[in-house]
Every structure is written in C-alpha cells, then in structure tokens.
What does this fold into?
Amino acid sequence: MFQSTGNRRKFSELSEQEILALAISSEEDDARIYASYADQLRKDYPATAAMFDEMVQDENGHRRFLIAEHERLFGPTIPLIRREHVAGFYARQPVWLIQNLGVERIRQEASRMESAAYKFYKEAAGRFTDAGARRLLGDLAEQERHHMMNAEAAEEQHLTPDKVNEEAEEARRQFILTYVQPGLAGLMDGSVSTLAPIFATAFATQNSWTTFQVALAASVGAGISMGFTEAAHDDGVISGRGSPIKRGLASGIMTALGGLGHALPYLVPNFWTATAIALVIVFVELWAIAGIQNRYMETPFLKAVLQVVLGGALVLAAGILIGGG
It folds into this structure.
C-alpha cells in the first residue's frame, strides 16, 4: 500500500504525534472534498448531495475527536503535516477531475476514500510496537469503520430506490445529450458524407495512397468542422446539453473516426484488396450506427436502417459511379 516517493518522509519514520496530526489534516481535506461534491450535485442530484452533506458532518465530528485526542496526549500545538508530505500515503483524486465524470463516479470515489482511510489506519496500527500507539491507531481504524457504516446508512436514508432510479435516469439523459447525440451525429456525418469523395477518388485513380491522402484530409477536415460547429452553436446553458467543449470533442472525434474507418484500408498497397476491405468496413459502420440510434435515441430499428444504411448505400453508389464514370 505504501511506496517511497521522492524526498517525502517514509510513513514508518513518523512519530505517534505526527500520525495523529496527519489523520487530523486528512479528515479536514476529506470534509472539503465531500462539501465540494455536495455543492456540485445539489441541483441535479439532491439525494446524493444530502448524503454528502451528512458525510461532511461526520468528517467534522471525527476531526474534533482527533483534535481532542491530540490535546489529551500531546498538547494543543498540532504539527503541520499533510498526506502529500508522506511517501505512499493514500492519495485523493483532484476534485476537478472526479466531478466531471458523473454522479456514479463520484459515489465510487467517496467509497474508495473511506475504504482507503480504514485500510490506512489498520496498517498503521501494525507498524508500531508501543502498546499505546497501537491502541490509538486501532481506535482510529475503528472510527473509520464506523464512518463507513455511517456513510452506508446515509446512502440508504437519502438514496431510496425511487431516488436512485431518478438520478440514474437523469445521469443517462445527460450522458446522451452531452456525448451520445453529438457523437452519433458526428459518426453519421463522418461515415456517410465522406463516402462519396473517398470512393470517387478511389475509382477515379485506382491508387491506394492517393485515395488514403484524400480520405485522411476529408476525415480530419470534417472532424474539425463538426467539432467547432457543435461547440459554437449551443453553450448548453439553456438547452441543458452540457459543456460545449465536451460536445464539440465528442462530435469532432467521432466524425473523424467515421471517415477514417474506411480510409485506413487504403494503406494496403493493392487497390482492389483495400477497396474490398473498405466496403466491408462501410457495411459494418452503417449497421453499427443504426444499432446505436436504436439503443440510445430510441429510433425504431427499421427506421434507423432506412435512414442510415439505405442513405449510406446511395451515397456510396454515387461516389463509385462518379469516380468510375
């Protein structure tokens, strides 16, 4: 669990007072993290926010208990030591990193935090032969165990099955609006709109490398265009579709991938082999898009097939006819 890192002190070198001071600062940090999660989630996920509010109160209670223990054992002056000062001390992910990953990921991170704190105290208790120190660290581990139980109780209290389902549905809706819709639109545009120029070039030149260059330019250009268009036309404030940067990236990347799927086969030197592989990939791409539409956009499968597969086939045929004419 613990590793030596840089010039930080090893955990085994800390005194009993420093270990207790480290526990106090850690409880303070965790309370701030949980408060940040609660503030972020309060609007869209009030039940989870209430759970984190209660966990903040628990952390503050533990901090007061630890400070009282420190004053009883060592006096009122608490050494300044934080987890980043200790090699291998269990780490906390930056709030800005986790808070952008959705409510489920935030709940998972909170669970990991509590589990890591409990394991830390249990392992720390075994690092000392002094009976008083072992007893103190064991008490801290027991406090963390109770904290874990309190967190589970808070989740049961605030996150009833109905509320869990509501928040899961809201998270799914936001995921679709922010990633699936723009990503699917980009994939469709990249896969379908590039068919005509790529296969027109292919049959006009019958040269794999030339076709690949045109296909690469068309795919990357379409990705950049779609990405900027998606990011610029809606800031997400009124529509609730989420960050324009995330939507722009989803749309741009999927647009480029949609075109690159049938561009990469033209890295094969033999033109007819490359074309055969590209046609198979086009077939798979179009059916995959129809399946995604059916699953996430609730488009009837037959309608999705007609929109995507039939439309793509017509564009493909147009490109072949133009290039081979």
In short: The chain has two domains: 9-159, 165-324. The first strand starts at residue 9 and ends at 10. The chain has eleven helices and two strands. The CA atoms of residues 14 and 86 lie 9 Å apart.
